Amino acid sequence: MIKRLLLAIMIITGMAATASAQETIYMIKGDKVVAKMNAEDVDYISFELPDGVKDQEKVAIEVNETGKNYITYSVTTANQNTTYAHMVIDEPTLNIFLQSYYDTTIDQVVPEVLEACLRMCMTHFGYAGQGNATYRMQDNEDDGSGHKFNIVAGLNYYLAVCELNNDDTLGETMKITDTATKKADVSAGNVSVSYKGQNEAGQAMFDFNGSDDILRIYTLYGHKDVMEAFIQIYGYEYTMFAFGQVWTLDELKNDPNGWQVDEETDYAMYILGVDANGDWAKDETFARITPIAQEKEGPKISIFSKSKGEGKVSVNFEITPSNVTEAYVRLMNETNLDDRLNMGYTLADLAAGGDATDVTSDINKFGEYTYTNNEVPNEWMSLLIMAKNEDGTTVTRMNFHAHLDGSQWAINENINVPATSAAKKHITSKNNMPAARKLNKAPKFSLK
After folding, report:
1. Is 121 among the domain residues?
2. Which one of 295, 352, 387, 435 has the fewest beta carbons within 10 angstroms of its own beta carbon?
3. What's the predicted TM-score (pTM) here?
4. Which domain holds residue 7?
5. Domain check: are 326 and 393 in the same one?
6. What is the pLDDT at residue 426?
7. For the chain, what is the domain count?
8. Tens-digit pLDDT profile for residues 318-341
């Protein structure tokens, strides 16, 4: 039906052009003339598909059903050989990507930027598919690659599908829709948390408990005043799911590492347990904690030379001793950096995250490195230099403006972080992606 209709349109167009020369336009459907008119009375002719007939798109996506902890959706394609990438992403995570990489929010984003951001997110959260198919993402179920789906109650989610090119890179056509999961009820299960004190490394230790029907526990830890401010502005759920970490109860109880203590202040630990129905149990605890002085210090970072101006920056530095196990350089927007620090990240976390440059090999070989950037944004920036060895981790922070004449450097040198910092409890999130996951080129999706 659709192919015949398109062919008829082509024939009609051709006849209309011929008829125009004869000063009469004939409208023909099949083998019948259904209308005729004087050419002088017609400016243009438009055509529409008949009622109930839809133009077949290369790919389309539609939500079928949502619950507290699952989303079911269907992808339709022009033919069964069409391959595509599809994705579900929660709004808090998407909003962090928009703020971090596009300087906008979900409430202000224009469609073109939203699509660009979703394309980038698809390289982290996308799955490959082929032909018409229905998918169900259920919280805490394995996605087939060893990772678990993360679908929680009461959140907005964005769903996207994008055709794949022959080389398995993202194509031109992307379709986007959104939905919301149902609100959580109070779980019949329970969770609890209490502060136990500090371990030998000075990390804060907590005692976690929960009933057997709690499948996963989200934790949100940081300075109490900062946590309370974020919750007041963004809400408890948004803050928890945007910046929290997710664990099993066994992981929390058996991990010997604790949480970092960077200054004497009141700290907060919020926890949220999720059961098999998607319902929640919550608890929280507060404690004033003082850092424990460390006997050893990490490598020394010495700035040899620095220059900035006209959107460019160059910094030459030495690290001693040079036999470091890790060394990174990273340029960040100063405000964004401070925001991350206020959420509980450390300078060491941020210096080695995101789009950081790994300079370990250069330091091992030469003992020094020159960082240059000829496209520095027109705003206040922070250059982080991080060095780590068996004694500890050291970070130097250099604030500057590469476009403002007369502006001065603000340098905080050799900030020491103990080498015994927790391996995985240093509060990382989607906001501070490892360098390996940062988008550098068009992604590829395997159908295997």
Report:
1. yes
2. 295
3. 0.64
4. 2-41
5. yes
6. 38
7. 4
8. 999 999 999 999 999 988 887 777
